[in-house]
């Protein structure tokens, strides 16, 4: 899938893939907006199958329901002072628990006045974004939008001034009411947003499908939204990740082209966390304007034939990018490892070509790789992220004459392998 494929045709410059890491050039409007997503998850290690760990409710952040106008403004300011805004994080997401538990007598959602005393419109004079829910209620049982899609879309965009709707999948009405699957429930909101845009002439709200990767959302998400969550969310800065694990987690999320929703308390975030979250070379690939497809494993695990299991998921990944082939190596072991691969194990590498190596964490040029590459002393649970670029023909005289010696044969018919 290319980045272009991810866009609904009618939507101008949506956030390419992420709720957060949107370089300014990709902004949907001229206004500067932020995402501080309070959405994340207890997913600690990539590839550790989400199966058991998938939250029924999206556990969303350092704050959970304990949000307020002050917290949102404070974090928005920190996003600027800590350099996150400059790195491309340009939305602030409030997520759940912003509303009173009941709609008002007109049927509108009402912001909680204790938490947001100045009102939502005032808040969005500086900040834009929102979490909401596709069922009867939100995940925390605040009012959801089912059967109120048009009314709520209008409130969010026209009256409250939000640009971005993170729409969850909790509190699902009975089947004998919806007669729809997940896709159909999202279609209702997408249609409401589109109708509203057509009637007002304003650009449509950006719709972020927060349904946790259910029902192969990657196959249909682009019909309705501009961003869709595939799994649990970004954890860097929370929980018990080591520095190396936090780097690994961020790298995996970013290079798999996941939405980059920061879910940590920026006031207490460490310098290391901020360093990780602002790795511009990694974010650039997450936001690649040409290639939308993420990295995928070329070896699946460490068992015979490289099959994976829960404790030892794929270690060797690669993918295309605007500027070359991206490699991600993850040491899933509990001790340091030397990690070796032949370049042509990746489908995105040309045989007979040598490649310059850029280390996307060390931010250094690491010489030229001929046929293979070895990363030494990769820390336990650590990561290596590389960008390989065509550096011309490989030296003459290398043996064997085919890097992959499977049916390798000379012009005169002499088989080499
Ligand atoms: C909620 O946030 C306030 C201030 O932001 C803090 O003082 C309080 O301890 C938090 N409460 C909980 C239960 O986390
Ligand atoms: C608003 O939030 C406060 C603080 O969490 C809570 O005590 C209060 O009940 C909420 N008000 C409404 C109308 O839900
Ligand atoms: C839908 O199913 C529920 C639960 O079985 C039932 O109580 C309700 O009457 C049904 N509603 C309609 C409209 O058929
Ligand atoms: C962090 O580790 C402690 C001790 O093992 C554990 O009690 C706690 O739940 C962990 N926190 C998270 C967020 O995983
Ligand atoms: C490709 O390289 C250019 C020039 O350095 C840079 O501006 C751009 O962000 C890079 N693109 C990606 C996807 O890394
Ligand atoms: C996964 O495979 C590794 C390597 O063979 C093995 O040590 C480990 O016990 C396996 N884990 C599970 C949960 O099967
Ligand atoms: C790497 O290439 C060498 C030389 O062709 C071959 O012997 C080796 O088995 C390959 N290793 C892997 C992991 O593909
Ligand atoms: C890696 O490639 C080089 C050629 O550049 C070759 O000399 C070396 O034997 C290869 N290493 C392995 C382990 O295949
Ligand atoms: C690339 O070079 C830098 C600087 O020497 C070094 O710190 C880093 O470990 C190297 N990266 C790899 C993957 O070998």
Name the CATH homologous superfamily of the largest domain: Aldolase class I
Give the distinct bound molecules.
2-acetamido-2-deoxy-beta-D-glucopyranose
Radius of gyration equals 23 Å
Q: Please give the order of strands in the largest beta sheet.
A: 5-6-7-12-9-10
Biggest sheet layout: 6 strands, antiparallel
The assigned CATH architecture of the largest domain is: Alpha-Beta Barrel
What are the segments in which pLDDT stays under 50 over at least 5 consecutive residues? 1-59
Beta fraction: 15-25%
Order of helices and strands: HHHEHEHHEHEHHHEEEEEEEE
CATH class wording of the largest domain: Alpha Beta
What CATH calls the topology of the largest domain is: TIM Barrel
- Return the structural class: alpha/beta
Whole-number total of structural domains: 2
Mean pLDDT: 80
Write down the overall geometry: elongated
Helix content: 10-25%
Strand elements, count: 12
How many separate helices?
A: 10
Summarize the SSE layout with pairings.
Elements: H1 50-53, H2 69-81, H3 120-124, E1 130-133, H4 149-159, E2 164-168, H5 175-178, H6 182-200, E3 206-209, H7 217-224, E4 227-228, H8 243-255, H9 271-277, H10 280-286, E5 296-299, E6 316-321, E7 324-330, E8 337-342, E9 353-359, E10 364-369, E11 372-378, E12 383-393
Parallel strand pairs: 1-2, 2-3, 3-4
Antiparallel strand pairs: 5-6, 6-7, 7-12, 8-11, 9-10, 9-12
Helix pairs in contact: 4-6, 6-7, 8-9
One 2-acetamido-2-deoxy-beta-D-glucopyranose (NAG) binds at residues 284-285, 288, 321-323.
Organism: Pisolithus tinctorius Marx 270
GO biological process, one term: carbohydrate metabolic process
EC number: 3.2.1.22
């Amino acid at each position: 899938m290319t980045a272009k494929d991810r866009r609904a045709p009618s939507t101008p410059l949506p956030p390419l893939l992420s709720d957060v890491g949107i370089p300014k050039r990709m902004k949907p409007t001229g206004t500067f907006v932020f995402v501080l997503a309070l959405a994340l998850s207890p997913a600690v290690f990539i590839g550790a199958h989400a199966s058991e760990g998938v939250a029924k409710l999206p556990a969303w952040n350092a704050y959970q329901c304990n949000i307020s106008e002050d917290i949102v403004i404070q974090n928005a300011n920190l996003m600027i002072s800590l350099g996150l805004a400059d790195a491309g994080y340009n939305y602030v997401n409030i997520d759940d628990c912003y509303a009173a538990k009941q709609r008002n007598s007109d049927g509108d959602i009402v912001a909680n006045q204790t938490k947001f005393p100045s009102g939502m419109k005032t808040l969005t004079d500086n900040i834009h974004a929102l979490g909401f829910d596709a069922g009867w209620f939100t995940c925390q049982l605040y009012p959801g939008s089912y059967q109120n899609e048009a009314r709520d879309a209008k409130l969010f965009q026209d009256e409250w001034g939000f640009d971005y709707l993170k729409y969850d999948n909790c509190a699902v009405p009975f089947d004998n009411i919806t007669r729809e699957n997940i896709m159909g429930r999202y279609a209702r909101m997408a249609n409401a947003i589109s109708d509203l845009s057509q009637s007002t002439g304003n650009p449509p709200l950006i719709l972020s499908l927060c349904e946790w990767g259910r029902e192969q959302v990657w196959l249909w998400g682009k019909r309705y939204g501009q961003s869709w969550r595939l799994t649990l969310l970004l954890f860097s800065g929370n929980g018990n990740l080591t520095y190396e694990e936090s780097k690994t987690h961020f790298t995996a999320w970013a290079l798999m082209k996941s939405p980059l929703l920061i879910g940590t308390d920026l006031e207490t975030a460490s310098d290391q966390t901020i360093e990780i979250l602002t790795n511009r070379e990694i974010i650039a690939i997450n936001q690649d304007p040409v290639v939308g497809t993420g990295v995928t494993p070329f070896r699946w695990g460490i068992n015979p034939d490289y099959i994976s299991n829960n404790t030892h998921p794929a270690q060797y990944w690669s993918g295309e990018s605007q500027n070359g082939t991206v490699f991600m190596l993850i040491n899933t072991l509990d001790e340091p490892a030397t990690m070796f691969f032949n370049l042509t194990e990746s489908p995105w590498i040309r045989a007979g070509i040598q490649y310059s190596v850029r280390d996307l964490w060390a931010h250094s040029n690491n010489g030229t790789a001929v046929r293979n590459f070895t990363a030494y002393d990769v820390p336990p649970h650590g990561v290596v992220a590389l960008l390989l670029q065509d550096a011309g023909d490989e030296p003459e005289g290398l043996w064997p004459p085919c890097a992959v010696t499977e049916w390798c044969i000379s012009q005169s018919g002499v088989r080499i392998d």
